[in-house]
Specification:
269 residues, mainly alpha, Butyryl-CoA Dehydrogenase, subunit A, domain 3, 2 domains, 0% strand, elongated
Length: 269
């Protein structure tokens, strides 16, 4: 619900580059298995290695550009960034289709049901046990990071829509409060309905996201639960439009509210 989108994205890129380094190290020293089934499942290792090397090369080119221009707000030419994004998406597809899917056909245990005898962690956060093969774990991490990037894009756009709606609501409240529009009670009622409807949609959408099992595992929270952090951030988002609504419905309260805010506003001057 909060955070700088570009900062989060660059953190993700650094983790992807780190994961590519680990994955290349394991692919380079991969020893072919002895059984025929495992040999067939790991037959795509050379293709995966070639694609991982191409992604690392694209990441290095972008890193050289970024190291020179990270502090320049007018820097342009993100062709290297675009190339790296496309290449890592292609590598993710290769790793998923030529390594993870064939290897998953060798699985003998359910990835949905949890062994009741496994007490690795809190039952509410417990998921399937990780693969015993570290190569597979690194490959799974790369795929997860790529899909996490798509999820971050969507969450960033949702946050932009929410912030835009909050700013528009506050601006409308200030406009109605500062000019004698008529009929005032009807406009106050319209603002109240908009606040309830917009706030209900936002709370419902963010609550569903926080209850999602996959996103909860990513953020290390309990699936299906809304913690105190969620409600505090929600109050932070809704405080400004709520104050604007109160001053519109109860004009006599505006002087009282601004008397509390005046010391803080004066200190900013």
């Amino acid at each position: 619900m909060s955070g700088n989108v570009l900062d989060v994205r660059y953190k993700l890129l650094s983790r992807q580059l780190e994961c590519l380094t680990h994955l290349q190290a394991f692919l380079s020293r991969f020893d072919p298995p002895s059984s025929e089934d495992e040999q067939e499942a790991f037959a795509g290792v050379p293709n995966c290695l070639a694609s991982v090397k191409a992604s690392r090369a694209a990441g290095a080119r972008f890193g050289r550009w970024y190291s020179k221009n990270y502090n320049d707000p007018k820097a342009g030419g993100l062709a290297g960034f675009k190339e790296f994004q496309k290449q890592i998406a292609e590598t993710t597809g290769v790793v998923l289709s030529e390594l993870l899917i064939p290897v998953s056909r060798l699985e003998k245990h359910s990835l949905i049901q949890v062994d009741p005898g496994d007490r690795r962690s809190d039952d509410r956060r417990q998921g399937p046990a990780p693969s015993a093969n570290e190569l597979i774990r690194n490959a799974e991490e790369l795929v997860c990071l790529t899909y996490l990037g798509f999820a971050q894009n969507l969450l960033g756009r949702i946050r932009t829509i929410v912030l835009g709606g909050v700013c528009l609501f506050v601006a409308a409240s200030i406009a109605i409060s500062s000019y004698p529009f008529d009929p005032r009670p009807v406009l106050s009622g319209v603002l109240l309905v908009l606040f309830v409807a917009f706030g209900g949609v936002v709370v419902f959408a963010y609550a569903d996201m926080h209850r999602d099992a996959t996103l909860s595992h990513v953020t290390n929270t309990n699936p299906g639960e809304l913690g105190s952090e969620f409600w505090f951030k929600l109050l932070g988002y809704g405080a400004a439009p709520l104050l604007g609504l109160i001053t519109q419905i109860f004009p006599e309260w505006s002087g009282f509210l601004f008397s509390w805010l005046q010391p803080g506003l004066s200190s900013l001057k």
